[in-house]
Amino acid sequence: MAVQKIHTGIVITKDGEVTKKFHETPTMWVVNKTECYRKDNAYAILVKEPAAALSSNP
Questions:
Q1: Looking at the domain assignment, is residue 1 inside a domain?
Q2: Range of the domain at 18
Q3: How many domains does the chain have?
Q4: Which keywords does this Swiss-Prot/TrEMBL entry list (predicted)?
């Protein structure tokens, strides 16, 4: 069964901003099996939905 990606965010890359869908684990934002961002230093990702997700990462 595939994991549902319930968040949308902007990832800032060398080529500019890219909007991606991802799901959340306790420590990471996961786009796919080869692309994920740690919550403790994921300064390049901006969570757009849901807003409640922002409260877990100050």
A1: no
A2: 7-56
A3: 1
A4: Plasmid
